[in-house]
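Input set for joint prediction.
Command: fold jointly, output tokens.
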Amino acid sequence: MNDRRLHLQLGIGAVIAAAFLGLVAIPSWVSTPSNVRNIVLSPLFWPTTLAGLTAIVGLGLVGTAFALPRAAPDPWDVDDRRAAFLRLAGAALVMLATFWALPRLGMVWTAMGTFSAMALLVRTRHPAWALGSAVVVPLVLYLFFSKVAGVAIPQGELVRLP
Amino acid sequence: MSLLDSLLAGLTLVANVESFLALAIGVVVGVIGGAIPGMSATMAVALTLPFTFAMQPITGILLLLGVYKGGIFGGSIPAILIKTPGTPASSATVLDGYPLAEQGRAGKALGMALWASCTADLVSNLALILFAGWLASFALSFGPPEFFTLILFSLTIIAGVSGDSLLRGALSALLGLLLATVGLDLVYGTNRFTFGDPNLMGGLNFIAVLIGLFAIPEIISMVWNPRGHEGQTRALGRDWVTFREYRNSFKSILRGSFIGVFLGSIPGIGAAPSAFLSYSEARRKSPNKANFGKGELEGVAAAEAGNNGVAGATLIPLLALGVPGDVITAIIMGAFMIHGLQPGPMMFILNTDVIYGLFIGLIVSSAFLFLVGSVAIRGFRFVADIPRGVLFPAVMVLCIYGVFAVNNNLFDVGVMFAMGWVGFFMLRFRIPAAPFLIAFILGPLLEDNFRQAMLMSGSSPTILFRGPITWVFWTLTAITVFAIARAGAKAARRPAA
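tokens >
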């Protein structure tokens, strides 16, 4: 990907995002009292200004894109692109599963699973070390945060730690 | 309160085992974090932050400052030994550090890096002590219009110099400002982008956004390319840096220190540009010009002095004005806030003991850096051997615990994951993350000061040009935009190599 294409993509994306903000998001999800006499003090003013500036920057990116003939490193450069995208999807799934499991299984057990899954995804060359650390690291962190820092670490429904 | 009283109050606060231990541990953690390719000083500071919640404010902040200083130096170790800068600030160190390692003189290069780092660090700390108080007393006369223009100038310069494109930096800053609008409106208390979710009413948690933006993308990058960050470690060699070599490079070290102090005190410029400027100045003035890039010891000294000279100076705008100088000081600002302290000119009046305690701790940190650095150079092989396939999953788990610990809220963990993907795509599309984070932190301040100024003036925008201070900041902002745009246009016209 060269700089020109990058700027074009970002610029078009920024203009679309600004249009979405201005036409949909701000009218729908920013509430303002009816008695605001001055537009500058309205809760709508700041987000609207930012959306406008985003559109201007987006147009600037599009406008300057054509003055950028320089080649740039491909941001997705990797040996096996398909496998890499599959791993990315795997990472997204691990994060979703972690977020879902945290209140149900508790932080320690979930973290053990997350650790193991991430070690698999980064193709660890030390599976035994990874497995050992997957058990030890969450337990050590649990001990520190719950016993030293006094944080109420979620325990879940299954196995509760002291 | 006289200077002596302030110093005594500071000494009372830090003259205990916990403070010095925190500082020492911080330096060790920082050097290790900076030395691990793929991690960075920023990531190390961000991951240490949750551990400070249970500490006294001064102890926690000293721990973070230790990590910061250690991290900046630590980045030079892999830069020299495996041609992989541990932090962006160490990129200039590679230029002569690695050729020296190839010649079997890695020990000499690392020794010089350490001496230069500690010297620059000390100069930077002294500059902080000399200038922060003066700037804070000056800033006491600032009102909302002055703060608005100051923050606008800071954001402009951060957006301009963080990446290689002013527009991409500006886009990043705007996204950060937009994210900062989530929550209840500052004046009317109405909902903005909360979607009826009580979790969003207080705005997004700063620590969750920070860790999501600076730690998780590195983990995702590791998933994307597990065999990145691998390099061949060079042996240290037998010879060590001599005092004579240090003396020969002293002029470059001192120049680099002052460049670091000057650039560090301007919000947003950071260590990497300072290191390169110091390096190029040393090369320009050196009688051994031709040897630069081929293994010149003075090149290593200049680059390291440039990046470490920033470390104390970035705290000048933070402590005196409440404006973070770079991402790491933004994290430290978060630590202040978590402990109920608001950095800025009033801190010099309300929390003099904390300020002077920090000053004393910073001076001591230079000595710790020297001691820890000497050991770390020899121990790098063990750090380099930490399997990244184990380290990065551990970092992920640490992020989960740390972010949860801030508010005891699982929602923040979700925010962190979401921001991690945002950060990863920003990384891939070369959108700098620093303006995003700093804009996210300064966004509420910017809006608040703007609206206060409007309330003061009955909504007349002329108040934003009410005096010489605002005019100075407007002028600086205009000059910054013009200079960066011009530099960008020049770079674009340059034919591809």
